[in-house]
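Please predict the structure of the following assembly.
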Amino acid sequence: DTAVSQTPKYLVTQMGNDKSIKCEQNLGHDTMYWYKQDSKKFLKIMFSYNNKELIINETVPNRFSPKSPDKAHLNLHINSLELGDSAVYFCASSYQETQYFGPGTRLLVL
Amino acid sequence: DQQVKQNSPSLSVQEGRISILNCDYTNSMFDYFLWYKKYPAEGPTFLISISSIKDKNEDGRFTVFLNKSAKHLSLHIVPSQPGDSAVYFCAASGAGGTSYGKLTFGQGTILTVHP
């Protein structure tokens, strides 16, 4: 009965590679988000989608491209990975103003 | 520019006593506030929220107080239990316009409840 799920949970890769993180929610929510938690533990929003339409894009390098095939999925594709991309990435979905988070994907770029 | 601040990085409390976690914000456009709890290697879990039209919201052992004039909110946990030990994040939303749905988080407070 997982509400918001992400795969993979851990991702270790080399600089310059391209990788994707998948997110799915079974809560029936219309809005989904990607957040990044950096080494200082701050959680910062990257993107949000409402019914497959991009509504928030927070000064994120264009190497990051979200894709929403349907309102239950919001995937994050990252091109040409850099060392500074190492972080924990959280997906979330929302009902009204409350957001519900996935377990996170721990990305380590070597 | 940190619009939501949790100035106490950590808090240690005895089991059964009250835990008070504090949060300050600077953006007067925020109109909805949330507290999340996070265990290691898990995602943040929604705990309790409050709209700016209220000054208090209670749910079981958890109560959130909002002081709009001071731009301050606090989370009270009473009685505290060892299972409450986690990182607590304060978050705010509603700064209008295209910011709808965007949560701005504080940096978190590590709560440790000792048996």
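The first strand of chain B starts at residue 4 and ends at 5. The interface with chain A takes residues 32, 34, 36, 41-46, 49, 87, 89, 91, 93-94, 98-105, 107-108 of chain B (CB under 8 Å).
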